[in-house]
Specification:
By secondary structure, this protein is an alpha/beta fold. The chain has three helices and seven strands.
Length: about 150
């Protein structure tokens, strides 16, 4: 991915698929559920931190049919070949994040700092997730100290 175009997606009520059921998938699922997406997880196993009652769990290996209706697909298995296959088999209208290969993705996640009324995103364009996390933490701390953060307009 050369120069990304930053956007915020409204995925509330929209079908999103997560291929993989491990700890990376658990982090992705938490964020997707917070955004009120309709989440399907495709994986033979599910991390204990993913509540199966909050997602539609297809307890199976990845198949194209399992993600056919998803607007957004996040491939985060521990098998790079499967992650690449998810991207290769996606239709032109589907946005795919290959969590293990940002260059082979339509998008990638950013670090997010929030307060009641503000959301700030931080990205290093994939070059340094650790640095983005550090910056996010500093912004999060700063947001907590602002007197305007709870004012309604």
């Amino acid at each position: 991915m050369k120069t990304p175009y930053p956007i915020m997606l409204n995925i509330a009520g929209k079908p999103v698929a997560v291929v993989g059921g491990g700890q990376v998938a658990a982090r992705k699922v938490r964020g997707l559920l917070a955004a009120e997406a309709e989440v399907t997880v495709v994986s033979p196993t599910l991390a204990a931190t993913i509540d199966p009652t909050t997602v539609h769990w297809l307890q199976q290996p990845y198949t194209r049919a399992a993600v056919a209706d998803a607007l957004v697909i996040i491939a985060c298995t521990d098998d790079p070949a499967v992650n690449q296959r998810v991207k290769a088999e996606a239709t032109p209208g589907q946005l795919v994040n290959n969590a293990s290969d940002k260059a082979n993705s339509d998008f990638y996640n950013v670090a997010v700092a929030t307060s009641d009324s503000v959301m700030v995103t931080v990205s290093t364009a994939g070059r340094s997730p650790h640095q983005a996390k550090q910056i996010r933490q500093e912004i999060q701390h700063w947001l907590r100290t602002q007197s305007w953060r709870d004012r309604k307009e």
